[in-house]
Specification:
The radius of gyration is 32 Å and the shape is rod-shaped. The protein is built from three helices and no strands. It has helices at 3-21, 27-63, 65-76. The protein has 91 residues and is mainly α. The N and C termini lie far apart (89 Å). Helix 2 crosses helix 3 (65-76). Helix content is 75%, strand content 0%.
Length: 91
Amino acid sequence: MTRIRVAGIAGALALLAFAAWGGEYGTADWLTIRRQLGDERAAVAGLRVELDSLSKLARDLETNPAVQERVAREQFGLIRDGEVLYRVVPR
């Protein structure tokens, strides 16, 4: 092989490597962005599940008397007539 042919092959390989891995949006950047896209899609799916459960809780708080009573008892310490409330306070 002549020097010119070797230089041409080396140049072609260098250009091919730069096209694949170099530049602002090379293959490495593309692979990183694809991984991040998958992570973000998983996060969005998790948030949708959480949103659905919070929407159900909000609907139950507005319409379901049993849920309203449970929340009133647990969060606000409300009791019915004739009941006695005991609070355990740590030292």
